[in-house]
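Q: Joint fold for the lines below.
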Amino acid sequence: MVKTGIVRDERYLEHETGSYHVENPERLLHIYKALDDLQGFFVEVPPRQATQQEVTAVHDPGYVASIAATAGGPMRHLDPDTVVSPKSYEVALLAAGGLLAAIDAVMEGLDNASAFIRPPGHHAERNRAMGFCIFNNVAIGARYALSKYGLERVLIADWDLHHGNGTQRTFYSDPHVLYFSTHQYPYYPGTGHYTEIGEGEGRGFTVNVPLSAGQDDVDYANIFKHILRPIALAYRPQLILVSAGFDIYFQDPLGGMNVTERGFARLTDIVMDIAQTVCEGKFVITLEGGYNLQGLAGSVKEVVSVMAGRTTLDKGKWEEKEIKGFPRVQGIVNTTRRSLQDFWQWE
Ligand SMILES: [Zn+2]
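A: Joint structure:
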């Protein structure tokens, strides 16, 4: 029996963003309610606040202090999209710390885990809040895993609709973290061209797959199988973190992608298979975007069902569809592979 952990906590609802913001507490309420249907198939992992030291391993101390100074104050904008309210600082620490708790749970015994937390993180840069993100949870998580467990290789796979500029920037010259991202392009935040492959010692350890709108379940599965998988098998990460954005859902109000609930199940299955091959199945999902509430709830349920070993996909049927659909992504696969040909070998 697979043991999967879940981080969820009512306190994540206390980061208020105003009545009209798409990144609002309703997102987690819908996810938490959907998880109730899976009660008994996962273990609750209690979150904690990330420490100053853990957060400043990624963020500038002055920036962290500037967010701390907003605690208890009025609601205000940090950038045109990113809002803080009286409890946001505390909740942002709890978001990063929630992922750290999930990582600990997996490093110390669970097979895999998910952190359903907010605010999201992958746009946050060293000294800047951006795109609904205050602290870069996944980057803090990767740094933490490297130092606490003495790891040398962590893979971050980011399937959010948007490019994780903050995550990329954090590890751009660092070969200890391989950052892989699929994202709509050109689109917010503007980064993530396939020629962005890292710098210095980190060259070859950033993998960008910019996509035009309209990619569906099979397209995503093929990109994960034909780009992420061979790189991951060669890199041999000791832990995989997933920036899981559900804004590639076909009815997401911000996105133009065509992924369904079942598509998220298949992507999870592919990542799980990679993790089982290279790192004893150890992977941790962290929530990024996703703004269609029903889609978010349904997709999370599919993802967790796969992680808990409750759903087995009809792999034969998927593979048949993927082989048939491969020509649609052949160009993308070739372009990405060519930009990284000095660093990775392809089958
Ligand atoms: Zn997003």
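Q: Anything notable?
A: The mean pLDDT is 97. Residues 4-339 form a domain with the Arginase; Chain A fold (CATH 3.40.800.20).
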